[in-house]
Backbone:
């Protein structure tokens, strides 16, 4: 019986696709914390280093269980759908903001 892998399976299933999907979110978060003056550049660098250490300690040593073929093929489609829904939410919020601002 195949069990589902840990929640960050996109990194295992499709690492390039996962990087292309998640990298813009990481960059937006980092830049927004800088522009809102919540963090300094050193905080961003330390956060990246801490994430790398946490990945090396906790995730790389996890045994990767075999995945069902349907899960392997469906993971990128599911993530693309979630990103599309998130984009629609952001676009709707932006439209509501601009309409409310002009009236």
Residues:
């Amino acid at each position: 019986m195949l069990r589902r892998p840990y929640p960050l399976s996109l990194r295992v299933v499709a690492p390039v696709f996962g990087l292309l999907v998640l990298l813009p979110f990481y960059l937006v978060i980092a830049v927004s914390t800088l522009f809102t003056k919540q963090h300094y550049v050193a905080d961003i660098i330390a956060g990246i280093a801490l994430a790398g250490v946490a990945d090396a300690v906790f995730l790389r040593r996890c045994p990767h269980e075999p995945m069902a073929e349907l899960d392997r093929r469906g993971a990128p489609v599911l993530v693309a759908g979630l990103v599309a829904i998130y984009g629609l939410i952001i676009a709707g919020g932006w439209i509501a903001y601009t309409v409310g601002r002009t009236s």
In short: Residues 10-102 form one domain.
